[in-house]
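Report of the visiting student (M.T.), summer placement. My assignment was to run the structure pipeline on a short list of targets and document each run. The first record concerns RNA polymerase sigma factor.
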Amino acid sequence: MTEPTPVPDAAGGGSRTATVPPEPLVPAPASKQASNGHRQNGAPRTEASSEPGADTHVNGTPVAVPTAVTRADVRSGDDVEAGIVALWRSYGESREQGQRDRLVLHYAPLVKYVAGRVGTGLPAHVDVADLIQSGIFGLVDAIEKFEPERGLKFETYAMQRIRGAILDDLRSQDWVPRSVRSRARDVERALERLGAKLQRTPTDRELAAELKIGLAELRELYGQLQLTSVVALDELIAPNKGGSSLAESLPDDAAEDPVASLVDQDSRRQLADAIAQLAERDRVVVTLYYFENLTLAEIGKVLGVTESRVCQLHTRAVLRLRTKLNEQSEA
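After the run finished, the structure tokens were exported:
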């Protein structure tokens, strides 16, 4: 009968139970232990150590160790660091593009990190992917100009170069001069200081005194700062509510109003029904006057009556139409 014996875990933490035969084990040759981990007489060995192909003792009982359990599949951090140092050394000697590309791939997460930090304070229409693209050029430039022999940390140096490349690209796309942007920041800081000091919105005269400029110069500065307040048409009004863009909310003066069109069609239908219910002579007067654009005298010649009689017929037709339209609207 065998007894469960606690042995140290292969990973070094805690213990596990291994079944140990009561009879002593006969050590097998080292070649057989490394190849199949069995006893010389065919009985299986028990796993207990972290050394491949080695024997240990538990309570005086020899226990074998499997090779597959103890072999590390993942490189340690020291190995990765040593590989990067060797790659830097090799790149510094040869300056090959392939080695540079390997360094770019290794340090690429830095670009995403810096682009996310820079993009936090930018407008919503600025795409982070564009910032990452600009940052990649900064990373390549940092790798080409970095000198490892100086003993500096590359990550600190590269983050400054990446951030500078992103900001340079943003400035190149800005139509507002940098001097105007700088004065806009000065005005914002002055407004914050005065607002905190006065506990109210400062007047233009107080703001001009804070900036140490004249009132006329301040108003001229306001005109320059209007260039910095431009809204992108593709910027969302409410990103979390519906997702409609600002361009979709702008009215088109040339577009036909569907509601007005429906109301007009319905009014025309009601008017046609009311005209159809008039007497024949009244219907002729309305048709010739409003649709054929004939004068009352011309209509009188067509009907063979005087102009005054046509005027009476027209007045009677209009009153009857108004009455019928009112009846239809109330119905």
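The CA atoms of residues 152 and 256 lie 68 Å apart. The longest strand covers residues 3-8. I thank the supervising group for their guidance throughout the placement.
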